[in-house]
């Protein structure tokens, strides 16, 4: 019974923390580090480590569980959860990107004396692109960062 409680607690923690960390990663990669916490910007590794640790503890709870069907149910739940956290984090980052772009447009339209230049034009164009295109921008920037 204790392994089931550990499993439930750590999948919940992984869901909450993992989704936020992935969202911060996406919005930072897309060029808006001001939308992520300062601690994450200074050193993202501990945040990633905490998320991964929660997942591993939930995995270990499944492995050591004495219950008959825990592995049969636990492994698919963890697999789906990993997929869901990743996708939800990316979606959250894309939503955040759109929100920032809309706010940028609103600021420059409310203050016509200010010249937003290329950034303002980029913000206007960003409203016309799809989430899939923003995701492709994200993947390209991740590839560039890896080089």
Give the CA-based shape: elongated
User: How would you spell out the order of helices and strands?
Assistant: HHHHHH
Number of domains: 1
Hey, roughly how much beta strand do the residues contain?
A: under 5%
Distance between the termini: 47 Å
Count of DSSP-assigned helices:
6
Average pLDDT reading = 90
Q: What value does the Rg take, in angstroms?
A: 19 Å
Q: Low-confidence parts lasting 5 or more residues at pLDDT below 50?
A: none
Biggest sheet, in brief? Answer: none
Based on DSSP secondary structure assignment, what is the total number of beta strands? 0
SS content category: mainly alpha
Question: Which bin fits the share of residues in helices?
Answer: over 70%
Please characterize this protein's 3D structure.
- Helix content is 82%, strand content 0%.
- The chain is an all-alpha fold.
- It has one domain.
- Helix 1 runs antiparallel to helix 3, helix 1 runs parallel beside helix 4 and helix 4 packs across helix 5.
- It starts with a helix and ends with a helix.
- 21% of the residues are buried.
């Amino acid at each position: 019974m204790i392994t089931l409680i550990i499993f439930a607690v750590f999948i919940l923690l992984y869901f909450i923390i993992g989704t936020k960390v992935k969202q911060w990663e996406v919005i930072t990669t897309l060029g808006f580090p001001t939308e992520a916490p300062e601690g994450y910007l200074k050193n993202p590794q501990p945040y990633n480590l905490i998320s991964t640790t929660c997942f591993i503890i939930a995995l270990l709870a499944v492995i050591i569980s004495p219950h008959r069907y825990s592995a049969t149910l636990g492994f698919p739940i963890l697999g789906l959860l990993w997929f869901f956290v990743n996708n939800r984090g990316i979606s959250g980052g894309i939503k955040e990107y759109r929100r920032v772009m809309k706010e940028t447009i609103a600021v420059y339209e409310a203050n016509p004396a200010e010249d937003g230049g290329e950034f303002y034009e980029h913000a206007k164009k960003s409203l016309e692109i799809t989430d899939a295109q923003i995701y492709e921008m994200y993947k390209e920037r991740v590839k560039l960062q890896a080089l």
